[in-house]
Amino acid sequence: MRNKILILVLAIVFAVPSFSQVDRSKQPAPGPAPEINLGKYESFTLPNGLKVFVVENHKLPRVAFSLTIDREPILEGNQTGYLEAAGELLRTGTKTKTKDQLDKEIDFIGATLFTSSDGVFAMSLTDHIQKLLGIMSDIVLNSDFKQAELDKIKKRMESALAAQKDNPNAISAVVEDALLYGKDHPYGETETEQTVDNITLNKCKEYYSKFFAPNISYLAVVGDINVKEAKVLVTKYFGAWKKKTVPSFKYKKPEAPKNRVVALVDRPNSVQSVISIAYPVQLKLGDPDLIKASVANTILGGGVFRLFENLREKHSYTYGAYSSLVQDRLVGHFSASASVRNEVTDSSITQMLYEMNRIRNEAVPDSELQMAKNYMTGNFAIALERPQTIATYAINIARYHLPKDYYQNYLKNIAAVTPKEVQEMAEKYIKPDDAYVIVVGKASEIENGLKQFGPLTLYDKYGDKIDTTKNKAPEGVTAKDIIDKYIKAIGGRENLEKVKDRTTIMRGSVQGMNITTVVYQKEPNKMMSELDAGVMKQETYFDGQKGVVSVAGNTQEIQGDALQAMKYESMIHPMFIVDSLKINAKLAGTEKVNGKDAYKLELSLPDGKTWFEYFDPETGYKVKDSKSITVPQGIFTKETEYSDYRNVDGVMYPFKIRQSVGAQSFEFNVSSIKVNTGLTDDKFEMKK
Length: 688
What we know:
This protein has 688 residues and is of the alpha+beta class.
């Protein structure tokens, strides 16, 4: 023991002089790029053209099978969304099994199985792979699409669209795609309620029949299996899959604008602006520029780098600002983005453009370049910890005709990038002057500040250019005309005056919970509502002056803006008495609601609170309202759509109501409306 201690002491003593020689004023020189051990894979091709890549990994007793259909992008047209629907339909039954039977068999072996329009992923324990492959091959070779299942899928898609309809980030993505690629390109199309409604079963069947072919497919097999075993199993279950001649397509090549263009989407209740500076680029996987250009983008904003440091750390404009440079077989794109406060929208764009210009015009310091290289090296190393990555890289080499050592040399190529090459790539791919500046925000507060960056054009949330002359209301039409037509359309003043109380029962679902809501109203402005979600019940009382809400025995008084809003919303027919409520109504032009033009009225109270209501020019019915609400989580826009008007004792009421608040969406169907049932005042007073 003494000898060991003496050796340790001597080692420390004699090490001191060597440490004292280190010059800590200089950053250590970067070491050589680490050697990459990609792991081994083996491959084979079946006679039908299916290309199979096998990666052995015996750490866990499980195997994953990932089938990729390597088709070209498809223009979906007026049925945009049918590819997504077809991908979901694959999981809903085959010629021999119903969806329930598939679910039970998959659950019984504890497996995972997902389908999409681009393929199938399945994974199970090694003991069950024969059963799993039987199910997977049955889906790939014998899918049987049913109309009832498509109807369910379309309803889910429509609900998802409704949830995203007012999401500013989703709106920005839609408009960005439309501008960068054009709506006649697969990457520029957008799903809408109308295109989803247009999806037919035959279109989904046609896609499956034409494009699910082994000769354009790759199968990755990863896990507790060797190539000999894999070949026997894949041949057994996929050998009968027939090859096909698959259609190919040609599309016009998208180009960046020759000069900067500013695109503004007005979202009147926004307190933040979503900014995106974007344009298409010609960059594919395997392009000699790709790695060097990726390093340049990483420095700009591909992580916590220049954009982040500038907009967040230096100026406190945002929580985060980033950029991406994406390669693609058809056309890639560049995008720099951030969400900022309304009042600093133009300042944020100025700083984003400054950073884009700086990386073009100034050499990157060695220390900053090394940080970016370290960041990219770390991400690559983490990805290699997943065996599935090895299979993905092997398939990429085959799909995109890359050199066989492309990934083996990836880190060496990153390490070799110089400051000069970063600047060259920035000059080639970072284009601050030839870009779309896309902003989703409150136009009345930010529009003037945006004009300094280039010609400004207004767009709607679907990426369609707004014709400001066309969106003006017809000459001579006033807000009073629209309100009068609405009153006449829903029954006329005489019938509306007869309604002294109303009871409405609505049913719907929110996040899988069935909800029943009963709303009692009595003139002039009393309301009581009962919400029953099974596990949770809520009651709201408003006696015309005071309001309270009770949840699970906890009662809270309604105050502030929420109380003021309740005074208006408790009225049975508030538009009938707009003048007496001292509401100022102004015609703000026209706007599309679900693809149809609607008159847009701006209504405001004496205290300055404003909201918007939309009316169908043909029927006169109200089709939507939009207002800003304040909740503990912040300020949100609440949009409510109305449809399916029906006659109840001489008055037309909407029987379908769809509401969205932020990313949440709720749809309710009215099951009954009763009027003049003799509701008494004590109904609207909370019981002690």
